Amino acid sequence: MTHSRRDFLLFLGASALSTGIGLASNRKSTSLAEPISSPDPTSSTAQAPPITLRASQSPLPLNKQLSDTEQMAAHRTYEVLDDLVLPPGYTYDVIGAWGDRVGDSRFGYNNDYIAIVETSPTEALLAINFEYISPKIWLDTYQAVLKQSLPIKEALTALGGGAALNVAALADSDPLKAQLQAIAKEGLIDMGIGIISVRRREDGAWERTYSPQDRRITGISGLEDGRYLKATGPAVAVFSKANKLGYDDGLGEKIIGTLQNCAGGMTPWGTTFSAEENFQTQVSEPVLADGSAASPEYNLLYLSRTNLDGLGNAFGLAGNKYGWMVEVDPSDPNDYGTKHTWLGRFRHEAVALQVTAGKPLAVYSGCDRRGGHLYKFVSQDSVSDPKDKANSRLFENGTLYGARFNPNGTGRWIPLTPETAIDPVLPSQIVPDDREGVQLVLLPNPDRRQPEPVGVTSDDGIRTYKSKFRTLGDLYSGNSTEKQGAILIDAHYAATAAGVTCTARPEDTEIGPDGQLYIAFTSGSSDREGGPDRAVFAGPKGEVPYEYGWIVRLEEADSEPGALSFRWEKFALGGEPAQGGAGFSNPDNVSFDPQGNLWMVTDISTGSHNAPVERRFENMPQRQLLGVFGNNTTWMLPTSGPNLGEAYPFAIAPMETETCGLCFAPNGKTLFLAIQHPGELNGQRQGGAAEKRNIVLKTTSGQEFLQERQVPLGSNWPGKTPNDPPRPAVVAVRRLDGSEIA
Predict the structure, then answer these.
(1) What global pTM score does this model have?
(2) What is the DSSP secondary-structure string of 620-672?
(3) Which partner from 80, 519, 643, 705 sits 20 to 30 angstroms from 568, CA to CA?
(4) pLDDT digits (tens, 9 = 90+) for 541-565
(5) End-to-end CA distance of the chain
(6) Measured on CA atoms in the order 57, 59, 62, 63, is the torsion positive or negative?
(7) Can you tell me whether residue 67 is helix, strand or coil?
């Protein structure tokens, strides 16, 4: 039998293949490297589940059972729709959209992670993240959607069309300071976390109930209302210490707000976690040797007609207080969040918890940057009752580790403690940037009086670095608790210095029905911040960079949450079917339905959606081929049965959006999805504007043909009335017959 694209593949390039393991089966565990046979999807025993989109709904050929002629006939032309496209028999309801009332505030922008907490058989609380604002479309539609004005024109006039400023340094009497603070305040309100109460009607649709638990935790909570966030762990000693080397916001351990809230996770005891991801967009990321923040002037507020960043500068926010995991109890109306610093400060994309009675708590999270790391926190104490809310205390003491992946499918966990040896990642290990050819590793500045990391581009430079510092404790200052806090605050650069593997944008982590960890690695490309290990994150033929991404399964030694070693393998491979891919690109959020199927959404950059591909040539950069995949999509991948490992497209997102926050109702009859940034590239669609683009596709066997694709310019979703301003929104997907989603 020919091994298919859906098989589990070890990261051994073209040298080894390993087929699928029945994750939800009851048979004995098998070595991850040991081949297990699974059915050929073209055989009579493999049956496509009924949830898949029709072939004509997909932008590219996916069905290998059709001949090349049939595939080309079905895909010669294709019209992209500005809507959430679902299989026949499904519908969706809009639950909430930007600007809707939530408590004493509003539904934020760019909704992301969603968690559900049932309060009765038909009622629940939804916890929703609001990640960021898309500057151009937010600025253009703010007044139309929120029915209130901002001094945007006045500020732009004063700035001569746009500029970056240290707002805090402006005189209080300067009207520009008040204008910029007003704009920054509204932008930060549209980030953070929201709790809303909902009810399922008899017809299966969901509606809001506006309970006392409804509330917003925003980027400025505490600034004016006293609703400060709390923190636990060693970094609190850094927040509270006197005579910091760097910036001091004067608040001690109090924290103003939470921002850039991307993915998240849920505990068995009913609290949720919210991941602060690209915090460096709004506040300063670099820190000094004692873990104190760089001055806010390291990240100026920048306003133009198409940009709005550095919002924390307007209020002097201390950058070291952002980039954490935030725990919230949705059922407690007085809970405005706790940042657990033992989980590390980096660009958190997600969190997965391994909770077993009698064992330590394990928490997995990825840093979503090119060259970011995979982390695991292990609690010092053990879980007693997995449902006990007292388990939240376990986050207050333990150890944070970073994953070291070996190309042979093994790995180990490196502790991020003062005693850990300095053994930095080598530049020669890193995938070169396909645009500049640079192999770069960023490390804590050897001049410990300077906050900015340094870029090392040669292995000799690493050897020089190692000659100056022996352990992580040599890089950071303070007493033992303060040093540990500084390491956690500077976790990404500390992990790189300790030799933790640079990976391919780990955007989500999820514990599967088999108890193992599934990781979505979104993109194997590099940039000026670094890139992945080239021996680990290569394509099926050893190609680097491999842009399309992977879903990986990780198994701890002896299935112990506190294990210091693991094995790992591929579960699904991004890319076109003709090249062995599953038909998607850039996997992002993942989740499991009640049947144990893996669900996944993609994160193709907006500028690449439906981008023309006028011709193809050998060794063409994969970034130039992303247009073939169309809009971002939602997929289902069975983890057992005759269709194990196959990828089935379930939904296509509206124009210029990203679908996030996969969340199933406990009965499996509703799938909640968050639709982010409609119209992010071309803004509010005017007069049904669209254009035709030529895209050279391949059949599943590799035959090239030309598709004419009609692409809307901008978006009017979710209103879908001509010229409607686009609004990010959360939707509930359900079957018209009321049965389970899958």
Answers:
(1) 0.94
(2) --GGGGGGGG-S-EEEEE-SSSTTTT--EEEEE--TT-EEEEEEE-TTSSEEE
(3) 643
(4) 999 999 999 999 999 999 999 999 9
(5) 29
(6) positive
(7) coil
